UniProtKB/TrEMBL annotation, chain B:
InterPro entries: GatZ_KbaZ_carbometab, PTS_IID_man. GO terms for cellular component: plasma membrane. The keyword Nucleotide-binding does not apply. This is PTS system mannose fructose N-acetylgalactosamine-specific transporter subunit IID. GO terms for biological process: phosphoenolpyruvate-dependent sugar phosphotransferase system. It comes from Lactobacillus equicursoris DSM 19284 = JCM 14600 = CIP 110162. It comes from the Bacteria. The keyword rRNA-binding does not apply.
Length: 284, 278
């Protein structure tokens, strides 16, 4: 399998749409086109092997299932994972003649994807830094009262950042990287220390994603309890995620009532009365 | 003569769409969503202030740093639309009030959004989609695209208009006692589902086996650990990462490099072995 210029250019365009500061909007760009599962679908269609594309997408999605970018810090770049990593993984897998649905193909995809994704954060910071130029235009426009220009600052100029740091790198890396990946695989055998380390890290990387989420949720040691209960439900009792969510809603309802009762108690003891204002609050 | 200024649905829709498509298009580490916010307020300012200089004055309420979870954040944009309307009608609201409200809401909304959307809703959707796509079928990916995009668009739209309708009353709800209780409750759902996601999709195992002189295994560490608590290593690694990042203030990238070091040593001593070959 090789990737021609036309295919590489399409992948480059998708990279512009999905990466953070994404030209297709956050929900459609980053959260849809950027997901490895969706990336697998797109790459499969572009490269003409849908099954292999989806298989790679599924494997990489497992690594990045709980990817968050709290405060704009990223640990992996979706454009690199989905539109550089997946195509390269597809080439590597098909050039070795591996079964696309097998475990070793999935692990190879994961190792290529996480490596490219981690290195790809450079692109993320490059785009964000270059956007500072357009923003400086924007501040001048605000100062001079040329408000109409703000649309261009927000929707037009960033395309230049993406042209340089998303489109071109993706196109070059997918076009030329295909042969490099094959060469690299020959140089690094699967049972050597470097590859074993890479696979072991690949297995642990989602822990970092989860830990980033936990940082938002856990403020004191007691906050670990619901997390561990959820873990136990799945690990020991083998519940699926929808079931865990439903059980967790019960605890959430109890938690809400307890909190409300407590805050009411404070209000009542401070200045009795005024507690008839709880209508329809549970529709988040 | 009734001179009350009122935002019509078309202007609000335009503002919402600008936010939906452009919250993060001109992102930088320094200003993050500030420009996305300003762009989405433009139609509102143009509608409310016919005079150009008033528009220019009004935009200065939105030049301060802004960053939040963009999904739930649309409620904040909706609230400011309503506050801007009140300001244009001379209802005792000034730019500072609007700015304080934005600054006060972006933290809590980011916290709820990340745990509710990124930590709970998306892993569930992806979990279902991955199951559908596991045989190499595109159905799961298509399922995710359709369900998520519809949910995101109409959910955010709902939040925007809800924020507009409630105005600063929404603030009371979001950061008041009731808001705190709802946040606690949502946090519980988030924490449990995140735990479930970890157990369902991540599995760190050891390959350490000790052999006696006859070459028979007398200690299979993974089996021993499983009999204590299934998934023990996975939880420990995760808590270790959490500890590094939140207690030791190590960045995510360095945390990953530490994992690389641990893996490398682990592979060398035979503690980890993914057991792969071509």
């Amino acid at each position: 399998m090789t990737i021609n210029w036309f295919q590489a250019a399409i992948l480059g365009l998708f990279a512009c749409l999905c990466s953070n500061s994404c030209m297709a909007g956050q929900a459609v760009g980053n959260y849809t086109i950027g997901r490895p599962l969706v990336g697998g679908l797109v790459c499969g269609l572009v490269l003409g092997d849908l099954k292999l594309g989806i298989a790679c997408g599924v494997a990489m999605q497992l690594v990045y299932i709980a990817l968050v970018t709290p405060g704009g810090t990223v640990s992996a770049d979706v454009r690199a994972i989905s539109y550089i990593g997946i195509p390269l993984a597809m080439v590597a897998i098909s050039s070795r003649g591996m079964n696309p649905l097998g475990t070793s193909a999935a692990n190879l995809a994961k190792s290529v994807g996480t490596l490219v994704g981690t290195v790809g954060t450079v692109l993320y910071y490059a785009v964000a830094t270059m956007n500072l130029v357009w923003q400086s235009f924007g501040w001048k426009d605000v100062e001079k009262g040329r408000l109409q220009n703000l649309y261009g600052v927000n929707f037009g100029w960033p395309w230049v950042s993406h042209l340089i740091f998303s489109f071109v790198p993706t196109m070059l890396l997918t076009h030329f990287g295909a042969s490099a990946v094959t060469a690299l695989r020959n140089a690094l055998p699967m049972d050597g220390i470097p590859m074993k380390t890479l696979f072991t890290v690949g297995g642990m990387l989602p822990c970092v994603g989860i830990a980033i989420l936990l940082r938002q949720i856990v403020n004191k040691p007691m906050d670990f309890v619901p997390f561990l209960v959820g873990f136990t439900f799945c690990a020991s009792l083998k519940l699926n995620l929808v079931s865990v969510t439903i059980v967790s809603l019960l605890f959430a309802a109890i938690m809400y009532e307890v909190q409300m009762a407590e805050s009411k108690k404070v209000v009542v003891s401070a200045s009795a009365g005024d507690d008839d204002d709880d209508e329809e609050e549970e529709d988040i | 003569m009734d001179s009350t200024k009122k935002l019509d649905k078309k202007t609000l829709s335009k503002s919402f769409n600008l936010w939906f498509w452009g919250a993060l298009t001109c992102f930088s580490q320094e200003h993050m969503q500030t420009f996305g916010y300003m762009a989405s307020m433009l139609p509102i300012l143009k509608k409310l202030y016919p005079k150009h200089e008033d528009q220019v004055n009004a935009i200065h309420a939105y030049t301060a740093f802004f960053n939040t979870n963009p999904m739930l954040g649309s409620v904040i944009v909706g609230i400011t639309a309503s506050m801007e309307e009140a300001r244009a009608n001379g209802k005792g609201i000034d730019g500072e009030t609007i700015n304080d409200m934005r600054a006060g809401l972006m933290g809590p909304i980011a916290g709820i959004g990340d745990s509710l959307i990124d930590g709970t809703l998306i892993p569930i959707l992806l979990g279902i989609a991955l199951g559908m796509s596991s045989g190499g079928s595109p159905v799961g990916a298509i399922f995710y695209i359709v369900v998520w995009v519809l949910l995101a668009y109409f959910g955010q739209r709902f939040l925007y208009f809800r924020g507009y309708k409630l105005g600063d009353k929404a603030v009371e709800f979001l950061v008041g006692e009731q808001g705190a209780a709802v946040r606690r409750a949502i946090g519980t759902v988030g924490a449990m589902v995140v735990g479930g996601v970890l157990a369902s999709w991540v599995n760190v195992t050891t390959s350490l086996k000790l052999y006696n002189s006859n070459g028979k295994v007398f200690l299979n560490l993974q089996n021993q650990l499983d009999s204590i608590f299934p998934g023990l290593l996975t939880v420990l690694i995760t808590i270790f990462c959490w500890w590094l990042m939140s207690k030791k203030h190590v960045s995510a990238i360095w945390t990953m490099l530490i994992l690389v070091a641990i893996s490398f040593v682990g592979v060398l001593v035979g503690f980890f072995n993914p057991g792969l070959s071509y």
